[in-house]
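Q: what sequence does this backbone want?
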């Protein structure tokens, strides 16, 4: 980097080329993340309960 002023000008030019998402796209993305987080948390809760059930059976049998 020999010329910092030229570098800053190029960064500014590139920044204008960025296409930012609209408010609707941002909201849709956030809602999709929220829904997937809820779905995955319910899945892991169910998986945890099933594994706990089988582990309790296994421990009762081996005693």
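A:
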């Amino acid at each position: 980097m020999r010329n910092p002023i030229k570098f800053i000008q190029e960064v500014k030019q590139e920044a204008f080329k960025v296409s930012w998402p609209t408010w609707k796209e941002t909201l849709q993305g956030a809602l999709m993340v929220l829904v997937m987080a809820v779905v995955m948390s319910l899945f892991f809760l169910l998986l945890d309960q099933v594994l706990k059930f089988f582990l309790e059976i296994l421990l009762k049998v081996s005693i």
